[in-house]
Q: What sequence folds into this?
């Protein structure tokens, strides 16, 4: 956050080639792009055109104009803006940029909203060079970007992991008198939690508290994830008490993250307390909740409880995650509980889950691993009898079962 803005950024001229991050400098096409831009002192609009032409191939039909296109009546300023915004909404950003070029050729420039839409969509598609070029074009034209525009560009930089550009943009906001709002800090918090940057996460939280920004359940959920990834599960538990003191009602994702945190560090009883609290608050478990409970109980060796959660999940009408199903069946196979495996499979068929070839493939694989080859063949026969097509994965696991049987002799 302490990086100072260089003179080229404030001037808005010849800047795109010099704002490349270390990662981008290793990319040959961005290096080539930077050299082409530095060859002169063009306006931001011409820089943006170079970036657009190099970074994204034009869509069919946009590169050459027919005589009919040339003879069309010129669109009004309002029509251009409406079309640009519509294409941005539909994700056709190249069409929006093409319309922007047509406007500039006629001496017109888009509205604030059109510029914002293009910055947002380009950032979401990872085309941050173009997004920044359009942002600089706004300033070059004398338009003052709003707080929202800064946040949109910041979101694009952070999403692509361009922290140097993000830092420079934050400094530019401060120097330009643009206040950082709650959205700014939420964007930073998301990026730092995702990147596992614990100290930066604490800094953002400190700034939010200092500025008296509201810390809701989503913020606390992000804090739980960073604590989980850094082995600080006790701090995660303290968050629950803080939320209760402030009267904040946790939502489902917070509970899921907390259950997963306790399970990861073997605190199964604490995870169950959170689950009970979740139910008492009227929050309905989703597939992520059940997955965590089943996975960590299997890891802890409490197969009976894991099977109980597995049954409850199916009673809720949720389709079992193949990875979780594999986890349970593998544990049962280790203990030689083949009847239990068959019971689970039949139960799933009764609930309408038997039509999945993945489930059959898992069963075939487990039988093969534990030398129950006759059962593997029965699974294949059952698969054919139900009219399900044998997938490549099923053939692979069947071959593996054969191989293991041969090796065991």
A:
């Amino acid at each position: 956050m302490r990086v100072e803005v260089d003179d080229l950024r404030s001037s808005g001229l010849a800047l795109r080639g010099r704002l490349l991050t270390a990662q981008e400098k290793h990319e040959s096409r961005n290096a080539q792009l930077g050299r082409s831009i530095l060859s002169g002192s063009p306006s931001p609009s011409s820089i943006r055109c170079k970036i657009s032409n190099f970074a994204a191939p034009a869509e069919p039909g946009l590169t050459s104009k027919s005589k009919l296109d040339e003879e069309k009546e010129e669109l009004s300023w309002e029509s251009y803006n409406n079309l640009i915004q519509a294409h941005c909404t539909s994700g056709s950003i190249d069409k929006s940029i093409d319309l922007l070029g047509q406007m500039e050729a006629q001496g017109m420039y888009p509205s604030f909203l059109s510029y914002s839409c293009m910055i947002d969509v380009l950032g979401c598609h990872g085309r941050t060079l173009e997004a920044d070029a359009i942002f600089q074009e706004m300033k070059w034209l004398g338009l003052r970007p709003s707080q929202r525009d800064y946040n949109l560009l910041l979101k694009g930089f952070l999403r692509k992991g361009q922290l140097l550009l993000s830092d420079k943009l934050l400094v530019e906001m401060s120097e330009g008198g643009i206040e950082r709002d709650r959205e700014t800090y939420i964007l930073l918090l998301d990026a730092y939690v995702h990147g596992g940057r614990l100290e930066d996460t604490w800094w953002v939280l400190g700034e939010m508290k200092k500025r008296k920004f509201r810390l809701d359940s989503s913020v606390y959920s992000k804090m739980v994830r960073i604590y989980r990834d850094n082995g600080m599960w006790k701090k995660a538990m303290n968050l629950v008490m803080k939320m209760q003191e402030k009267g904040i009602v946790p939502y489902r994702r917070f509970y899921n993250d907390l259950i997963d945190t306790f399970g990861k560090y073997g605190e199964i009883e604490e995870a169950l307390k959170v689950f009970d609290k979740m139910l008492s608050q009227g929050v309905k478990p989703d597939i992520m909740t059940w997955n965590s409970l089943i996975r960590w109980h299997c890891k802890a060796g409490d197969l009976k409880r894991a099977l109980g959660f597995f049954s409850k999940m199916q009673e809720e009408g949720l389709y079992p995650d193949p990875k979780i199903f594999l986890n349970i069946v593998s544990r049962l196979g280790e203990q030689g509980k083949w009847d239990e495996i068959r019971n689970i499979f039949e139960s799933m068929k009764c609930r309408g889950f038997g039509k999945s070839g993945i489930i059959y493939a898992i069963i075939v694989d487990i039988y093969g691993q534990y030398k129950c080859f006759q059962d593997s063949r029965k699974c294949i026969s059952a698969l054919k009898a139900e009219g399900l097509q044998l997938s490549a994965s099923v053939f692979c696991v069947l071959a593996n079962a054969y191989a293991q049987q041969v090796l065991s002799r």
